[in-house]
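Operator note (shift B, R.M.): manual run for Radial spoke head protein 9 homolog requested after the automated queue skipped it. Running by hand, logging everything below so the morning shift can see what happened. Input copied straight from the record, untouched. If output looks odd, do not overwrite the archive copy; leave it for review.
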Amino acid sequence: SLNCVEWSLLPPATQEMVAQAEQLKGRFQGDPSFEYEHAEISAEDAEGLIEDGKEPVIKEEARLVATIELIDRAVGIVPRGAFVKTPLGSVHENRNFEGLSLMEAKKLSSYFHFTEPVNLKNKTLLEKADLDPSIDFLDSLEHDTPRGSWTVQLEKGGTVVVLRSLLWLGLTFYHVPMTKQYGYVYFGTGEKNLDLPFML
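Run finished. Output pasted below as returned.
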């Protein structure tokens, strides 16, 4: 939105947009039509784009779309059991999900990345034996690298569990134990915290 009254949808992110946006550093300008030029893209990436016959330019709107995609992939999370996988492979919202218990809600292992699993495929058969294939089909936060990239806190006298990402500062996930209420919001600069490994 340009006036906070009229809103329009952003276009879907493409792989090219994501690749270009990952090369950009610094904060957003606040103007969707602002164009980042090759000077703001690293020299070897700019060279590769020039060889392809394209001028290495990306608009701020495309950078915003790509950054949202990157944040969703890295830190978009759901509680364990909120979604189920059918034997045919389709994923649906679990209508029987009534929330995590307070004990479970305080554990990182009770939250999953809501993206295609990567680490799950690398587990041994022995590790997979304890998993329920209908609800444990996503990657758990407990194995995120670097370790310590999430904080778990209790708010409102222990009635709300809040997870915060230290990798994407400004990402806050909440869950009210024993209810279906959960979600996440991002209020940040759109910059990944690349210093995190040195801070831990």
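Quick read of the result: The chain has six helices and ten strands. The chain has a mean pLDDT of 87.
Leaving this for review. - R.M.
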